[in-house]
What we know:
Blueprint: H1 3-24, H2 45-51, H3 56-63, H4 67-74, H5 81-90, H6 98-101
Helix pairs in contact: 3-4, 3-5
Amino acid sequence: MTRTMRRLYFFSDDVVRRRTRKMLEEPKPVGIPEKEKVKVEPNNVRKVREGLLLSKAELARRAKISVLTIDRVEKGMACRMDTKRKIILSLGLKLSDRDKVFNKA
């Protein structure tokens, strides 16, 4: 065995030992931040949508936004003003009727 081969052999053996030692150690606890608090504002989007017999998919298609966005808005998560405007208009309401869908903040 040449010197270079011995060095490589011992080097690789050392790396394997270190990795094995790390695997056997218990994982160190990592500071996991608490979930960010999402602002929830109750609204009547679901009630109005169901009153018009519309599905989430159909409302999303009319408003030209995703179904996921409709779902989030119905759950009360915050959304952009433009999204609110699109939802109100796609429900066949006027912008002045926004308080019927989205409560005053």
